[in-house]
Amino acid sequence: MVRYKFHSRMASFFCVLAVLVLFSPASAAEFPQKGKAIQLLVHWAAGGSSDIGARLMASGMEKELGTSVLVVNKPGAGGQIGYTALSQAKPDGYTIGSTNFPSAVSSYLDPGRKAIYNRKSFELLALHVVDPGIIAVKADSPYKTLQDLIDASKAAPKKLRVTTTGIQTDEHFATLWLEQLSGAQFARVHLTGSAPSVTAVLGGKIEVYCGNVGDPQVRGSEFRVLGVMDYERSPFLPEIKTFEEQGYKIYFGSSRGFAAPAGTPKETVNILSKAIGNVIKTEDHKQKMQNMGLTLRYMDPSGYQKYWDEFEAKLRELMPLIHNE
Fold it and tell me: Does domain 38-131+254-323 have CATH number 3.40.190.150?
């Protein structure tokens, strides 16, 4: 009788265990499931550098993960449409999205935009690219150094015009930060992209170009770059001093990373993050990003978290300045 009860209990135990295994969610080791595609939401139109960089990453991730990674463009409202979709996606690892700064942060810090997401709406996967900001002038400009430009702006406040690619863009915040530290006062001209900004400066309609290292025009002979907003000199502009080297601790630009919806299992996050890191290490990816003039800067979830927190803190400081303009 005792032996019978023992075998009966053991049989019941294994039956329950079998049911749990059969009906429990797939374990992290089984992510991604063979044949199940991952969607990568890109919050900008096809063809831009953010889209191209994401597509290069998607191609590399397919090789790392053994499944399709499909780029889905969701442009509009300065990235807000895409971020909203990402925040509301099922947190199973099969929907991830790009996270571009400053838009991923500024969109929810501005109460007027009524974003339904914030930092806690996302599980961070990795930082991919940092495209540092630059200040440049025409090659024949009288301003030879960053300090020349600042001194001229302080002597004639709001007279020197500087380009941005729109309100709450990285150029907008960067010039506000420069004003905050230096006492300069520029007249910002918000245009619709880098191409019209280049045209306006080279045509003599605007004196100062604010953009990024990755803008191919500024690396040519028609521009004089006065400074790079990064912790170290850019390999694409090695002869140009950083802002810090010139006395202004400004580190800003356009950065791009990836995130998943909040609640995505930690094991799945780690698998995706590792795949992104492995892609970045490949010579093929390095070369293609170099050809685009983009600076690779991988950070894992914890590193990206710290980077996000510091960036958000700075934007909270600068955001009121936008509304006071």
Answer: yes
CA distances from 183 to 186, 226, 283, 322 (A): 10, 18, 44, 16
Neighbours of 233 (CB within 10 A): 15
Average pLDDT over residues 79-92: 98
Quote the tokens at residue 1: 């009788």
The DSSP element (H or E) to which 226 belongs, if any, is strand 223-229
Q: What is the per-residue pLDDT for 29?
A: 53
> CA Rg, the chain, in Å?
24
- Say if 38-131+254-323 and 132-246 have the same CATH topology: yes
Q: Where are the domains of the chain?
A: 38-131+254-323, 132-246
Looking at residue 280, what is its pLDDT? 97
Helix residue ranges per DSSP H, the chain = 2-23, 49-65, 80-88, 103-109, 146-155, 170-182, 194-202, 266-281, 283-291, 301-323
What pLDDT shows up at residue 30?
A: 87
Residue 290 has pLDDT above 50, yes or no: yes
Mean pLDDT of the 315-321 span? 95
CATH 3.40.190.10 holds for 132-246: yes
For residue 163, the model assigns a pLDDT of 98
Burial class of 279 by CB neighbour count within 10 A (0 to 12, 13 to 18, 19+): buried
The pairing of strands 187-190 and 122-138 is: unpaired
Q: Which residue has the higher pLDDT, 163 or 2?
A: 163
Residue 3 pLDDT greater than 90, yes or no: no
User: The tokens of 197 are what?
Assistant: 């900004």
Mean pLDDT on 10-28: 45
Show the CA angle centred on residue 161, arms to residues 155 and 166, nearest 5°.
140
